[in-house]
Write a structure and sequence with these properties.
7 strands, binds coenzyme A, 167 residues, 7-stranded mixed beta sheet, globular, alpha+beta
Length: 167
Amino acid sequence: MLVVQRLDGRIHDRAGFDCGEPSLNRYLHELATQHHRAGVATTHVLVENTSPSAILGYYSLAAAQLSLGELTSADRRRLPRHPVPVARLARLAVALGEQGHGLGEALLQDVVKRCLGLRAELGIHALLVDALHERAAAFYRRYGFRATAADALTLYLPLGNAGQSKP
Ligand SMILES: CC(C)(COP(=O)(O)OP(=O)(O)OC[C@H]1O[C@@H](n2cnc3c(N)ncnc32)[C@H](O)[C@@H]1OP(=O)(O)O)[C@@H](O)C(=O)NCCC(=O)NCCS
């Protein structure tokens, strides 16, 4: 069974992960644990529960804010006139041999579920993502993410009002 676990260097083989994007590999290999400890970003990994050392995919999340002008005028309605609190999906990657089998979508669903859970404790209006390139942006657009005003590769997904939105 596939499970999402908080990154733990004693269990998960960070060095063995390869998604084909050097910057995303390097982050997991060298920085994710350090950032997690420092409260800069949290990282969760997708593994098979019977062989948890092999990381099939991962994502990193951090707190962020988005200025009101970045939202579409419809999304801006009824919001206070100051930057809105968001969660930044700082990184998302699936291992090369596992891509195209729904794991990216499963990770994204887990991110949204986690953010909706966090909303019981902290305001999170939307999920923000910096897509590495147009191909990645196309992946996010499939799930309702829309481009911010400033940058087509910076996208956001409003999390809805009732805490029930799903990608
Ligand atoms: C982008 C990435 C996370 C997608 O994960 P994945 O497991 O390969 O994607 P899934 O199998 O869950 O795909 C879900 C759906 O999105 C589609 N999709 C996948 N990648 C896509 C892309 N780049 N553009 C548009 N659609 C895409 C799939 O066709 C699938 O749709 P379908 O069910 O109708 O066939 C993964 O390919 C990856 O890690 N790539 C390298 C690193 C990277 O670019 N990360 C993004 C950083 S911002």
